[in-house]
Amino acid sequence: MVIRPFARLFALRPVALLACAAVMVSTMSGCRRDDSLKIGYLGTLSGRHSDLGVAGRDGTIFAVEEINRAGGINGKRLELVIRDDEGKAGSAQTAVRELIAAGVAAIVGPMTSSMAMATVPVINGSPVVMISPTVSTGDLSGKDDNFLRIYPTNAQKTRQLAEYARTSLGLSRLAVVYDLSNRSYTDDWRQAFTRQFESLGGTVAPAVSFDASGQTDYLSVARTLLAKKPQGVLILAGAVDAAMLCQQIRKLDTSTALFATEWSSTPELLMHGGTAVEGIVYCQNFIRDDDSTPYVTFCRAFETRFGQLPDFGAVYAYQAVKVTGAGLAKNPAPRGLKGAILGTGTFPGLQGEFTIDRFGDTDRKPFLMTVRQGAFRRVEVP
Fold first, then answer.
1. DSSP three-state, residue 264
2. How far, in Å, CA of 159 to CA of 192, rounded?
3. Where is the signal peptide, in residue numbers (predicted)?
4. Helix (H) or strand (E) run with residue 26 in it
5. I need a labelling partner for 318 at 20 to 30 A (CA). Which of 34, 67, 216, 254 fits?
6. How far is the first Cα of the chain from the last one, in angstroms, to the nearest whole number?
7. DSSP 8-state secondary structure symbol assigned to residue 362
8. Beta bridge partners of 260
9. What dihedral angle (degrees, nearest 10) is formed by the CA atoms of 5, 7, 10, 16?
10. What number of other Cβ atoms are within 10 A of residue 133's Cβ?
11. According to the model, what pLDDT value does residue 287 have?
12. Residue 96 · residue 106 · CB < 8 Å
């Protein structure tokens, strides 16, 4: 299956608002307070990086509706409470406190590493468990706290992309640009990738940074990068910023290899990047062309529900809700949910089983992907 590009607006769309309303109505109508279980969703639903947050929200809604159609959790329907972290630490912390006050048993989210770093101290001061679909910073690994995730850290992906660039492509000098607005993620990626690439005999020029929360002169950034005479550029940014950087780099140079990460591998990269993102290579755990029955069935049902195919944020948010549901079925009390999830260990995923270890971390096999003829496709490495 090839995932085709589709348009997604940064702000909440009317159809999305209706979807949220539909979930709230379906889970609340005709129910007494003890007839439902509340879970929260936290993601960036407004602003520049809202593509991932909106995708996660849609995947969460889809999973909640599916669980409720099947009879809920031990006969109790799920009630979904949605909050926008606005991509800001203060807003995220406020949203988490509101969700805890609302009585949620768990929070699905956040979707970015910077928001996780901001909210984990808040969640650790409560009995509520936070289950992130897509956070991958290594700064939260190996800790016995209330933060769990179903997405692996950056370690394997940085190693695989570095090996591909150095060994398969034979590149010896790279430049890196990273967005400070999600520094927990981008700086973790930058440092790990640099170590891996240089351990293979390559050289990484001093990194260039920018802050997507402000105004960015993409042409100036592109010129600074190319002045370092790299054979390739690794772009650690969200989809829109990565697309804009690719546009400017390609205006100045058509031969430099381009690399990116899963954060930018959303349809907005294709929509805003056009031909400039053709050939860009990135590493992620989401298999876009997977033809397994569970994934294909999910994609068809999701497209019927939302009018578009799911992006990786939706796929992983859906699975995060399923993990939450499995834990709630064993122990619906907030203080017992973490133990129920960690005690289960292995869960059926849309693209194969995955295991959550005693620290709430997980591991999955990464894959190299590229953009070819306006679509995301897998890179076959000999």
1. helix
2. 8
3. 1-21
4. helix 14-28
5. 34
6. 22
7. B
8. 235, 282
9. -110
10. 29
11. 86
12. no
Among 224, 226, 223, CA closest to 174: 226
Q: Which two tokens stand for residue 155?
A: 């370690």
Quote the tokens at residue 248. Answer: 């400017």
**Per-residue model confidence as pLDDT tens digits over 141-184:** 999 999 999 999 999 899 999 999 999 999 999 999 999 999 99
Task: Give which of 55, 62, 59 is closest to 6, Cα–Cα.
Answer: 55
User: Structure tokens of 97?
Assistant: 């406190």
C-alpha to C-alpha distance for 226 and 31, rounded to whole angstroms: 61
Element (H, E) at 159: helix 155-163
pLDDT tens digits, one per residue of 214-233: 999 999 999 999 999 999 99
Any idea which residue has 């009018």 for tokens? 307
Is residue 379 within 8 A of residue 281, CB to CB? The reply is yes
Beta sheet of 129-132, edge-to-edge order: 77-84, 36-43, 106-108, 129-132, 147-149
Burial 30-48 (b: 16+ CB within 10 A, else e): eeeeeebbbbbbbbbbbbb
Confidence of residue 42 (pLDDT cuts 50, 70, 90): very high
- Nearest C-alpha neighbor of 141 from the set 292, 353, 370, 361: 361
Name the residue with tokens 């402000």.
214
Give the closest residue to 211 by CA, choosing from 246, 181, 175. 181
Domains recognised in the chain with CATH numbers: 14-152+291-355 (3.40.50.2300), 155-284 (3.40.50.2300)
- Rounded CA gap, 249 and 220, in Å? 10
Q: Which distant-in-sequence residues (6+ apart) come within 8 Å of 71 by Cβ?
A: none
- The Cα–Cα gap between 146 and 96 comes to 13
